[in-house]
Amino acid sequence: MAMPARLVRSTAHLAGRGRCRTLAVAQRVAPCPNHEAGKALARRAFATAARTAVRGQATAAAQRSTPSQSPLMRYNDLVAQGEINRDPRQETVIKRLDEMAKTLVNHVPKNATVRTIAPPASEKPSSAGGIFGGFFSGGGADRAAKKPEPPKKPEIIMTPNGPRGLYVWGGCGTGKTFLMDLFYDSLNVKKKKRIHFHEWMIDVHERLHRLQKKNASVQDKANTVWTAEAALAQQKQLKAGASMQQSESADDLVAQVAHEMLSEAWLLCFDEFQVTHISDAIIMKRLFSHLWERGGIVIATSNRPPEDLYLNGLNRPLFLPFIPMIKQFCDVHDIASDVDYRLITTGEEEDRRVYIHPNGPEQSKLIERKFYRLCHGEVLTGAQVETQGRRIVVPKTAVNSNVAWFRFKDLCDKPLGAADYLAVASAFHTIFVADIPKLTLQERDQVRRFITMVDAFYEKHTKLVCTADEDPIRLFYVTEEDKKTSVADEIFAWDRTVSRLIEMQSTKYLSMVSRQMDGDQFLGMFSLTSLTTDDLDDLWRRYDRDDNGTIDTDELRIMLEDVLEKYQGHRNVTDEVLALVMDEIDLDKNGVVDYEEFEKCMKDFTSIKKVMSL
Hints:
This protein is of the alpha/beta class. The chain is built from 25 helices and 20 strands. The strands form five sheets. An eight-stranded mixed β-sheet has the order 3-2-12-15-16-17-18-11. Strands 7-8-9-6-10 form a five-stranded parallel β-sheet. Helix 2 (71-80) packs across helix 6 and helix 3 (88-104) packs parallel to helix 6 (176-186). The longest helix has 26 residues, at 197-222. The protein is globular.
């Protein structure tokens, strides 16, 4: 797996207290597994989620289903429960995945059949009239000028000896990931992995880097005088494989990485399969050749058909041989839907906005109030996120919770990549980004970084609070002429970014972000003795975990565990304390707590503290 990012908070100024404070390294909580569209409803109707077919709802429903259910059964259950709408195009995909799931249950990976076809023999040059031909025809000069053609490499053809994978492509929000998650969660296979393709490639490069360093250290050690006997033995070992390392060292490292990854998982489910960097493009064929040759199976979702991957990329001819390999080892299916379910949303209260536009003085004050409210006025400056030997400066962070503040230029005017944004998202559960400007193709580098940043935050299920000059749809301005004539990937990728920015504002997305935080991280954002209306809404989102409009005994226990973790450092809630607190909060004594009861009691939190003896 990728190396974890570290949040370094050292000798940072503690704003509001006029002194310095040193904090320990902080780690990000586990990411939320849920995505769904539908903007937040009125405060007392958090239980009503938008019933749209998106990945978050599917994941949550899949987790509630019994493990023995097949992908198709789970899909039909969601339709019957009214949580999603039936979509014939999705049904086609889920039926294919259902058949594949049946095949893979008892599947044992087998090596692919490899055939080597020798190139046709090159013709020998004619004698051109024998010994005198050269004198009279001038052929001698021609032969001297013409260099012999390099020998052609043999063609290697692989054929899978097991089920082929599936490559599903189509527009944003059409349910591709939703369906893959149903398949993955229902499949009883131990060696499987579901991962965003960006993250997986970062892991590949980190493994290659580790192996390169290991080989270099062995070579350096053999070239030093440590003991004559050991050095001689080491140098003989290196010389024995010198020719192979010189000619195929890079491919050998790729083979080692592929072997490592296959030992961990032979079924790979990739979300958002895309190739944007030359460093990825040049190793794709070699990497996947080894994976598929050893029996690996790939399920992938993408916004593009295989032939459009790495379109207009640098040195694309080096990547092109990979495309027929995808088609050889995966069935390619176009989901062919024009509906983006994440855009089917309902209204949201103005004061609950996390995407604030248009930007101006009042909006700047609003986002600052939101940030300092979560930080309780205690803000650190000078923190850094460390990843892959680099350090990313974080202008402001909260003292008591992993909340960070950036401006757009801090993240998108600098040469940062996917690994950097994933590191930032791993260090903070909530990230504020101020002053996102209206973008055009003139700011192509910033657009590309912003797209990558949103992808990383979305994949890590980070809460994004931002101010922007325009709404997501109008934030990136492209003329109709540019849309028709430009080959820029940014234009193609922006639809996905718009869809994600809208989904990241939804009730379900924000609820699941809060539910996945550690208790001390979550409650660290609130002053429980002086809760605002916004605070109460956030608390309700976390603890009404089944979104039915009430908090039952089990949900109340989770809240009390969080409170004990904050105040006493443990989560051991006794049944006696639970019963006493329920009796205190449940005013109508019906066994559950509704929002009005919750609001009334939480505004006087001292009574709960007294019952809990805090």
